[in-house]
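stage 2 :: seqdesign
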């Protein structure tokens, strides 16, 4: 490879699954209001690797990876305040590459005590968690939050954020071992199940009150059970559907009588301007806790750059807790 080319992982589809392949690509040139970053680490996000989520169109191949940490290699016009070598993190496209271009509004200065891998694990998970827990979820100190599939990256981030607020957290997982590990991060109640059978346990743990906020990180199979577990004036976020179940029955009477609120959490249809507002919120509400060490991104396992297929398989086998990170190319 020359100085003008780089290694870049690509993603495409084969039937009902996604596949990744390594290619040589030109080093991109940042345009106005963009920053070119030399990649040191990038983390995996499950939704990008699920064919049914529609992020990769059938018959197409594109660069893969959605968040990164690295050093500024070149700042385009309209992005003041950054110089070559500055350590940064943030969301972008094509993160599993030697270099990645970031929208200038997405660039976040990296806390100095974080490793490259920890920094790469922070942006998407904590921005999504902020949207669910604070932005739309409006979780308050002393309230109860339920997270289905809590061991996923965004679930662990939501747990950490809720505990920083002073809320109580209940989580479900099919792994008793993972629930035990999450106790160290402040998990108050762990429910060992993958089935929609947890509402009674939630009610028991909350003395009949229910969850003030539920984060549905699983999908349609647990939707009705989350409704059942909600408290009066409870809120529920729909953030994922790893079960690939996109439909569910709604108990309209419960929705009506308990004055419930349902909301979605996704960036798929948001404009760049709308996405930038979540960066501003992250910098205001989450970055201080990361900088001061009150919250630390949870990295489960680190893979070398050439091992993305193995990292993808590790994620798809549900062996991880928190984030899986790929190091940048040497």
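stage 2 :: out
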């Amino acid at each position: 490879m020359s100085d003008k080319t780089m290694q870049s992982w690509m993603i495409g589809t084969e039937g009902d699954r996604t596949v990744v392949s390594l290619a040589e690509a030109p080093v991109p040139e940042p345009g106005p209001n963009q920053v070119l970053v030399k990649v040191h680490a990038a983390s995996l996000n499950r939704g990008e690797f699920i064919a049914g989520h529609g992020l990769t169109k059938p018959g197409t191949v594109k660069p893969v990876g959605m968040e990164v940490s690295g050093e500024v290699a070149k700042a385009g016009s309209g992005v003041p305040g950054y110089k070559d070598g500055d350590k940064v993190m943030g969301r972008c496209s094509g993160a599993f590459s030697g270099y990645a271009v970031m929208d200038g509004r997405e660039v976040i200065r990296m806390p100095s005590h974080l490793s490259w891998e920890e920094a790469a694990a922070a942006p998407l998970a904590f921005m999504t968690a902020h949207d669910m827990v604070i932005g739309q979820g409006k979780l308050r100190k002393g309230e109860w939050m339920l997270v289905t599939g809590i061991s996923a990256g965004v679930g662990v981030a939501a747990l950490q954020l809720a505990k920083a607020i002073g809320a109580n957290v209940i989580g479900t997982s099919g792994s008793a071992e993972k629930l035990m590990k999450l106790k160290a991060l402040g998990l108050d109640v762990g429910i060992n199940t993958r089935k929609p059978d947890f509402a009674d346990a939630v009610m028991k743990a909350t003395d009949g009150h229910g969850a003030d906020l539920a984060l549905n990180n699983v999908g349609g199979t647990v939707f009705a059970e989350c409704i059942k577990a909600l408290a009066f004036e409870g809120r529920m976020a729909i953030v994922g559907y790893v079960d690939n179940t996109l439909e569910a029955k709604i108990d309209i009477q419960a929705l009506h009588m308990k004055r419930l609120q349902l909301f979605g959490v996704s960036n798929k249809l948001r404009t760049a301007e709308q996405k930038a507002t979540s960066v501003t919120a992250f910098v205001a509400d989450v970055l201080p806790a990361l900088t001061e060490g009150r919250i630390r991104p949870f990295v489960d396992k680190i893979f070398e750059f050439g091992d993305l297929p193995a990292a993808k398989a590790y994620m798809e086998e549900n062996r991880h807790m928190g984030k899986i990170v790929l190091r940048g190319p040497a």
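stage 3 :: structure notes
- The chain has a mean pLDDT of 95.
- Residues 132 and 138 are 8 Å apart (CA to CA).
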